[in-house]
Amino acid sequence: DAGVTQSPTHLIKTRGQHVTLRCSPISGHKSVSWYQQVLGQGPQFIFQYYEKEERGRGNFPDRFSARQFPNYSSELNVNALLLGDSALYLCASSLGPQGVANYGYTFGSGTRLTVV
Amino acid sequence: GENVEQHPSTLSVQEGDSAVIKCTYSDSASNYFPWYKQELGKRPQLIIDIRSNVGEKKDQRIAVTLNKTAKHFSLHITETQPEDSAVYFCADNNAGNMLTFGGGTRLMVKP
């Protein structure tokens, strides 16, 4: 049974560019959440999607957007990249919209984004 | 918004000793408190969690305690081993499906 898969694993982009990160949740999980982990810090919540609808948004600028597809996979998009966007981007899947308290998260291995 | 403070930021212990990591949170509505272990270059992995209706939970060498009145919770690792070396994060859930994480504790277990 596959876990949470994220692609790509590593990415180098130039300031001002756009990036798309992808996540496939565990089979049967309908909720996907995105987190940003800057080096040396804890993960910070960006978005949660459930059944293709945004269910939560963290304190991130409008340059960050996401969507969820009918197969429950998800994309995180970041426009006009800044040096400060360099981080590990983690995707977490859970069973339902309130799943983290009932079932916990399973994190993917992340995409390491470097902006130069 | 919710704030989770974690201490210490680094902790060095001898193999076989105990390690304690403490976290405080701000939102009294928080009701779920997981702990994650993250090894270098790897994903955070859930090691233990506790809900607000429980004061203590144990799983072999790991235990978590929760004091809702004081709004703090702690991770206790006994008989530490070199493979326990990692960064540990506490977190809480106060709304929806979102976790608020502490800043992390780098635990080093010296053989």
List the SSEs and their pairings.
The complex is a heterodimer of chains A (116) and B (111).
Chain A: E1 5-7, E2 10-13, E3 19-24, E4 31-37, E5 44-50, E6 53-57, E7 64-68, E8 74-78, E9 87-94, H1 99-103, E10 106-107, E11 111-115
Parallel strand pairs in A: 2-11
Antiparallel strand pairs in A: 1-3, 3-8, 4-5, 4-9, 5-6, 7-8, 9-10, 9-11
Chain B: E1 4-7, E2 10-14, E3 19-25, E4 32-38, E5 45-51, E6 56-59, E7 62-67, E8 72-77, E9 86-92, E10 100-101, E11 105-110
Parallel strand pairs in B: 2-11
Antiparallel strand pairs in B: 1-3, 3-8, 4-5, 4-9, 6-7, 7-8, 9-10, 9-11
Structure description:
The complex is a heterodimer of chains A (116) and B (111). The longest helix of chain A has 5 residues, at 99-103. Chain A is mostly beta strands and 116 residues long. Chain A starts with a strand and ends with a strand. Chain A is globular, with a radius of gyration of 13 Å. Chain A is 4% helix and 49% strand. Chain A has one helix at 99-103, and strands spanning 5-7, 10-13, 19-24, 31-37, 44-50, 53-57, 64-68, 74-78, 87-94, 106-107, 111-115. Chain A has one helix and eleven strands; from the N terminus they run βββββββββαββ. In chain A, strands 2, 4, 5, 6, 9, 10 and 11 form a seven-stranded mixed beta sheet that branches. With 111 residues, chain B is an all-beta fold. Chain B is built from no helices and eleven strands. Chain B has strands at 4-7, 10-14, 19-25, 32-38, 45-51, 56-59, 62-67, 72-77, 86-92, 100-101, 105-110. In chain B, the strands form two sheets. In chain B, strands 2, 4, 5, 9, 10 and 11 form a six-stranded mixed beta sheet that branches. In chain B, strands 1-3-8-7-6 form a five-stranded antiparallel beta sheet, with no helix packed on it. Chain A binds chain B through residues 31, 33, 40-45, 48, 50, 55-56, 58-59, 90, 94, 97-101, 104-110, and chain B through 1, 4, 6, 31-32, 34, 42-46, 49, 51, 89, 91, 93, 95-104.
